[in-house]
Write a structure and sequence with these properties.
The chain has a 6-stranded mixed beta sheet with strand order 2-1-6-5-4-3, covered by helices on one side. The longest helix is centred in the N-terminal third of the chain and has 18 residues, at 3-20. It is α+β, with helices and mostly antiparallel strands. It has a single domain, classed as Roll (Nuclear Transport Factor 2, Chain: A), CATH 3.10.450. 29% of the residues lie in helices and 48% in strands.
Length: 119
């Protein structure tokens, strides 16, 4: 397994654990500031970790009853200090979400700098 694949696997293992624990502070720490969330027709700049915490705090309802989170991921590109990872998330055995994450290397470890939903 490549270093990039190991980095992505480890990162998204921690991400899934924080998601299942409903720990918005842990998830917010995994997002870079500044950061960017790109949805079709909408770009959301992230200037403060509190934005990410609040987003997840308000979204826990959509994960109500979810006890398992599995991901299928592929490192689709890399550059010095960055990885782009295509991740398909399945919750309780059903495919639910797919995103492309740009992970950037920071002193505290890799963080999500850009998040883009995928079809």
């Amino acid at each position: 397994m490549s270093d990039s694949q190991t980095t992505a696997d480890d990162f998204f293992d921690r991400y899934a654990n924080a998601l299942l624990a409903r720990d918005e502070k842990a998830i917010a720490a995994m997002y870079a500031v500044p950061g960017l969330i790109l949805f079709p027709g909408q770009a959301i700049p992230v200037a403060d970790a509190g934005q990410t915490e609040e987003f997840f705090r308000q979204s826990w309802e959509q994960y109500e009853g979810v006890q398992e989170a599995h991901r299928q991921l592929a490192v689709i590109a890399e550059a010095p200090g960055s990885l782009w990872v295509d991740v398909t998330w399945s919750y309780d055995g059903r495919v639910q979400e797919r995103f492309c994450y740009q992970l950037v290397e920071r002193p505290e470890g890799h963080q999500i700098a850009v998040l883009t939903p995928m079809d």
